[in-house]
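ligand=flavin-adenine dinucleotide
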Amino acid sequence: MTRDLHHLVYYSRNRIAADGATLCEAVRRILAASQENNRKAGLTGALMFNSGCFAQVLEGPLDAVEETFERISRDERHGEVSVLAFEPVALRSFGTWSMAFVGGSLEDAERFADVARSSGFEPARLSGDRLHEILRDLAIEAEPATARTPSAVA
Ligand code: FAD
């Protein structure tokens, strides 16, 4: 088991053929499975869904990040998965969230629309650092301490 702390940042396109409440329910199911699985695997991070795209930061032991991302990248609910960063890190940025969810509020939507516009809606033009920073800021703003999911952190 490789315990070295790593983080992975990616961006993908939604392939869930639904809208409104059905789409919300589909994203809610992804989030629930993520929180449950990530807690057991010692992973933390944040998931954003907006403008038809997902963005996610996963952080934890290298093996757990790799195994989980392999599953995620095969998931047909999204596609065109673009990895923007995958590297060792000294500390976790989302230490108390098994998977924070951001992107649901109007403010989040506006902020993400700015980012999407500035990158020309082209994931490859976003830097991993920039996306990581946005998710971290949104997670801090969006979730009160009491709503955070305790995690089994390394
Ligand atoms: P399952 O028991 O297989 O499924 C959990 C729920 O999702 C169930 O309600 C099931 O009906 C539903 N489901 C599963 N697959 C599909 C499908 N193809 N279409 C429709 N519904 C389906 N998993 C993590 O463990 N950690 C993550 O951080 C994470 N992030 C994700 C981010 C995105 C953008 C997406 C699309 C998926 C993510 N997943 C994540 C889910 C991952 O791809 C696997 O579906 C999941 O890990 C399988 O776990 P499970 O066997 O416990 O869940």
